[in-house]
Amino acid sequence: MKMKVIVTPKAAVLDPQGAAVRDAMQHLGMPEVRSVRIGKYLEIEVDGEEAEVEPRLRQLCRDLLSNPVIEDYDLLRAEEGRA
Amino acid sequence: MKFAVIQFPGSNCDQDCTAALNSLEGVQAEFVWHKETSLEGCDAIVLPGGFSYGDYLRCGAIARFSPIMQAVVREAAAGKLVIGVCNGFQILCEAGLLPGALVRNRSLRFVCEMVTTRVEVEHSPFTIGMAKGTLLQLPVAHGEGCYFAEEATLRELNANRQVVLRYVDANGVTAPAANPNGSIENIAGICSRERNVLGLMPHPDRACEERLGSSDGTKIFASMMQWIVGEQARAA
Lengths: 83, 236
Known about the structure:
The complex is a heterodimer of chains A (83) and B (236). Chain A has one domain: Phosphoribosylformylglycinamidine synthase subunit PurS (Mth169, Chain: A, 2-Layer Sandwich). Chain A is 34% helix and 25% strand. Chain A has helices at residues 16-27, 50-65, and strands at 2-9, 40-45, 71-77. The radius of gyration of chain A is 16 Å and the shape is elongated. The mean pLDDT of chain A is 93. Chain B has helices at 14-22, 68-77, 87-94, 151-159, 217-235, and strands spanning 2-7, 28-33, 44-47, 81-85, 101-103, 111-119, 135-142, 146-148, 163-168, 187-191, 197-200. Chain A binds chain B through residues 9, 12-14, 16-17, 20, 40, 64-65, 67, 69-70, and chain B through 57-58, 61-62, 65, 93-94, 99-101, 103-108, 146, 148-151, 182.
């Protein structure tokens, strides 16, 4: 089974990377771009049943894959046939 | 007295720390590999700077799960002195031994320069003999040293006087221009509520000889030594 984790910086945390990319997008002809936040995307292949594996993965999302002080995360089941 | 300098894969200031500490009379600094599980017999613990685990995922995120960290947490809870420099500070935050987190420098640049820091508390084990307002010249070298904490945490840090060092200008003022990384409230170093764990981005280990531009780092280590001697005398 494939799972994906999306980690994003919390709203209160400054994201200078996102700001730099937003500025570049605006300079490249898209002044409509209001904000960009840069996070991380993880693809995880895991054996086992989702009901059993999901809560353990969720725990690792909190302990390792994200830092709750500065980041939020989403844990999602990757659609079949896609990464 | 014995200082344990933890070596993680990717630590690169372990030699600096050991050399700086061993140059102080009465100190014996020894490396401890991160796979070890005990820190018994040492008087203080040093988490050196570097790029543990290549800074993969987040700085310090993987190192905090090294076997030795359980011993660090145990000894910290028992009141032993723990100092984390640069990457060591990041590891202490990731491990939950210190509040907050260190994020990418606001400038997005790696900063490598001498900075001025101001001592904010005179009664910590790391600042004995330094009056409040003492200025220390210490070098920084980091890409992710911007200290961040939520408002409630920040209030608590200030109320408990846990901010030990702030970045200041030559006049001792916390000016934005004196802040090398965008840290909230110019914070350069904080200690735990119990005051025995210190994390700081500047490198006292690289400022223990005049020919390196400053010997102010010695004051922090000398303070730790003085505190340890005091504790030993009290226990005896």
